[in-house]
Amino acid sequence: MSNNELADQTKEEKGAEDMLVDSDYSGAADSKKPKFRPATGFELNNGPSQIRKILVPRNRFTPLKKEWKKIYEPLVNHLNLQVRMNTKSNRVELKTSKYTSDSSSLQKAADFVHAFMLGFNVDDAIAMLRVDDLYIDSFDIKDVKVLEGDHLSRAIGRIAGKNGAVKFAIENASKTRIVLADTSIHILGSFQNIKIAKDAIGSLILGSPPGKVYANLKIISSRMKQRF
Prior knowledge:
Component of the small ribosomal subunit, ribosomal RNA processing complex (SSU RRP complex). Residues 138-206 form the K Homology domain. It is found in: Nucleus, Nucleolus. With 228 residues, the protein is an alpha+beta fold. It has two domains: 43-130, K Homology domain, type 1 (Ribosomal Protein S8, Chain: A, domain 1); 135-227, Ribosomal Protein S8, Chain: A, domain 1 (2-Layer Sandwich), CATH 3.30.1370. It is 56% helix and 15% strand. The chain is built from eleven helices and six strands. The strands form two sheets. Strands 1-3-2 form a three-stranded antiparallel beta sheet. β2 (81-86) and β3 (91-96) form a beta hairpin. α10 packs antiparallel against α11. It is globular and about 60 Å long.
């Protein structure tokens, strides 16, 4: 056998080995890949029902009775959920049904009801059902600065302002909604807007005069208008 014939035979054997290795590797890789079955729509309808329970504070019973129609109508008619008020456990119970078509409906509804229980108006809280990037951030005044007695009362007064003027100014400038519940503060809005409101409230807690906070808010609001 000549040298050329020997070289050709060696190449053929080597090519066959490469094909064998490649086929083995591809088969091993395919076996390691996860195999998902095709999506068949929202599977919550076929699976067990999911439930959320939201505790109703004592001071929110009367507003809940007054606004009950505004609360359950969007949950039942638009999100296709089952809603009831359990008077024994003092909780609003939300449950998926066979007509629920969106997997996020239950969590949106729970966030909406929870926002109302924190003290937000129904018309403001219902925005959580329509907009995806709305959140609630809660913190205590003492988390910013430890205050007691009259110092704490004055800090709350600076945040609220006369007839709520300071709070309204912060809400309008930052495009958020704010609830003052004793020493707790709840802010509803987008992530960036919540940060603007928290910075303004933190400055007031630390003792900054409202006039200085007003000036900073005007600068921030003008920048936000230019951005959009």
